[in-house]
Amino acid sequence: MLSFAKPARHQNVDTPESGPRKLPWGEGQRLQKVLAKAGVASRRAAEELIDQGRVEVDGAIVREQGLRIDPDSAVVRVDGVRVVVRDEQVYLALNKPKGFQSTMSDEHGRPCVGDIVAERVMAGQRLFHVGRLDADTEGLLLLTNDGDLAHRLMHPSFEVSKTYLASVHGEVQRGVGKTLREGIQLEDGPVKVDKFQVVEVGEGKSLVRVVLHEGRKHIVRRLLAEVGHPVTGLVRTNIGPVALGDQRSGTLRVLGRDEIGKLYEAVAL
Question: How far apart are CA 260 and CA 72, in angstroms?
Fold first, then answer.
């Protein structure tokens, strides 16, 4: 429910040149029904949100009750956060287990992500995995049938950050973080991290947190090996605003509406 959220910042007024295309009676769906189906609020509460000028369709504030929209094409925002209104869209977080391939099938019969979502695929859902994790790396993978979102999340120009926890050989010294933040040269070009934190040190090993928006193959393992700390275990904990949290290995979780809205915001959709 959004009853305590602040009003939208840009309370622009509808003009004939902007805003949603009005559909005739019998076509599309009423806006308050669409909001209710999306889990934003009950229909009555959705009507109140519309009255308060907190609902935006295709770039314009809507105050008209009963406006009919096409959920497949309309861009709907509540308090500035985009709302997913298409019934067929699927957004999942997977905690990929170690030893699984980041593919929907594997010609060698190795365990893969497709095994975990087999029932959904058999039911007709076509899912894209957002990025990859090598077989020895576990943690967060996003799965969706929203091709536009998947493409943008993987495109380097949008610089969506990824966070990893890495167990490494050796006790990491303070200067390593500065070196990685300033950048180092790998065989396929320069790279630097956005953030680096030593979480634990002791008994000849360390646990470090690495945040970067690079997507090159084995980039975290290569970076840490280059500064003298080979990785012994690696987990991806975050992709942009989505966190793995305490989700168990091998399980799927449906993303919340706020998480999806923040992903859209991160890639300017």
Answer: 16
Residue tagged 């170690």 (tokens): 98
Torsion sign across C-alpha atoms 108, 114, 119, 121: negative
What is d(CA 216, CA 131) in angstroms, rounded to the nearest whole number? 10
* C-alpha atoms less than 13 angstroms from C-alpha of 5 in its C-beta half-sphere: 22
Q: Enter the DSSP assignment of 136.
A: T
Measured between alpha carbons, how far apart are the two ends of the chain, in Å? Answer: 23
The catalytic residues are: 134
Q: Whose CA is closest to 227, among 183, 260, 161?
A: 183
pTM over 0.85: no
Q: What is the pLDDT of residues 46-101, one digit of tens each?
A: 888 999 999 999 889 998 888 888 887 888 888 888 887 666 788 999 999 999 99
| Distance in angstroms (rounded) separating the CA atoms of residues 180 and 175 | 9
Q: Is there a contact between 236 and 164 (Cβ–Cβ < 8 Å)?
A: yes
